[in-house]
Write a structure and sequence with these properties.
2 copies of one chain form a homodimer. The first copy, chain A, has 238 residues and is an alpha+beta fold. Helices cover 28% and strands 24% of the residues of chain A. Chains A and B meet through strand 8, strand 10 and helix 6 of A and strand 8, strand 10 and helix 6 of B.
Chain lengths: 238, 238
């Protein structure tokens, strides 16, 4: 993939890259696309020069040696602060995702700009899907992915933040297991597992923002990454 | 794989299955092994018949329509209760993992028994690795995996609970990104991503407890799944 700039037609760039690589797209292929290129193409880039940090942002930044303008952007992207301790700022975004810095990221972009999450990553995924399906005359699924941290475990993993054409959860409840017993609470977040699998190929510094997963059997339907967000009333770790 | 019973030599069964499938093991292959077969082979099976539930276990079970003996086993496996609300019991195991029911599981086993996590899944992984390396005369890595839930997101995903021969985290900190900027907080939990990738092939009901991942570039070294546990003093969601 070439370097993606604001306003670039990302779906077409993906089609061109697939063709240039000589890849034949097959029905059911799952395209995992890194959030960073989606956000860049959609112009979700904020120059820090124009940002006026609030007092909260200035205080926090001073305490933990951060850029107060970056902190201000994070606070603006947050709909709720979940934790703000020891230099770590975990926030709920307007989409409902809970992640570090409300998904605002400064890596792999020019200095003095930060990248926001796509406004609606499901829509981004659907747009990519529509172009891929038209150009390759077959059905595909698209997952827009980002790397999120998680409580209790070290390191970040890739998860799905936008989805098109694939049921993100497989619900095994009610199906008999190998001993004929009901599988009681087995709902697998396959969209997140597919995103994680793709990250192993993307690697952070490899500049491979699109990965195709082939041969995975899934349910094709209209879907949303919102299905992966636990409803607040069911969440014990708000 | 045949059905695994207590006392079965799991490493040898894996070797036999690989040979029977005509698979040639290649240097660097990562074997992901489902916790369930590891626990079964190691006899980590508890018949519920002999369990005397405490009052706490009886009360909780009555409130949420659960088997009080199963709840008692969970409480015994826990070293700390993290949440106990709305029928959900999240506990820290003696290994330091935080997961539902302290990792005690009743699916895919005979009725009236439950399965505990391996006593030391790193040791289990090392034993499997040693046998594979001896029999196939090459170096491999082994990950023992289990499906864990996570706060904020629906569904469970496969993660690493035991490790041999692979660094579980890749630390990109200090490496320049594609714009020459330092990647500040990018530590990727590749062992968890490898486990998640493997789950897509295992599928809960498919009876495929061992998956081989080939062609992934990683650092070979002695390792432990404890590296994936966030130190309590760094964890904002205890």
């Amino acid at each position: 993939m070439p370097e993606v700039e604001a306003g670039d037609p990302l779906p077409s760039l993906i089609v061109e890259s697939v063709r240039a690589a000589g890849i034949e797209v097959v029905a059911g292929d799952v395209f995992v696309v890194a959030q960073k290129v989606v956000s860049k193409a959609e112009g979700r880039i904020v120059p820090l020069a124009g940002i006026e940090p609030s007092e909260l942002a200035r205080d926090w930044a001073a305490r933990y040696d951060k850029d107060p303008r970056m902190v201000e952007v994070v606070l603006k992207e947050a709909q709720r602060i979940v934790r703000m301790e020891r230099g770590v700022l975990i926030a709920e975004t307007r989409h409902g995702f809970i992640c570090a810095n409300a998904g605002v990221d400064a890596s792999n972009v020019a200095a003095d700009v930060v990248v926001l999450l796509p406004e609606d990553a499901d829509r981004s995924a659907r747009e990519i899907q529509a172009t891929l399906e038209r150009e390759f005359s077959t059905t595909v699924a698209v997952i827009v992915s980002d790397t999120f941290g998680r409580p209790w475990r070290e390191g970040i993993v890739n998860v799905a933040i936008g989805i098109a054409g694939i049921a993100p959860l497989i619900d095994y409840r009610g199906q008999p297991d190998s001993h004929g017993r009901d599988l009681k609470v087995t709902v697998i977040a396959i969209a997140d597992e597919l995103a994680s699998a793709a990250e192993l190929v993307m690697r952070k510094t490899a500049g491979l923002p699109v990965v195709i997963i082939r041969g995975f059997d899934y349910t094709t339907r209209e879907a949303s990454a919102r299905e992966l967000i636990r409803p607040p009333e069911m969440d014990l770790f708000r």
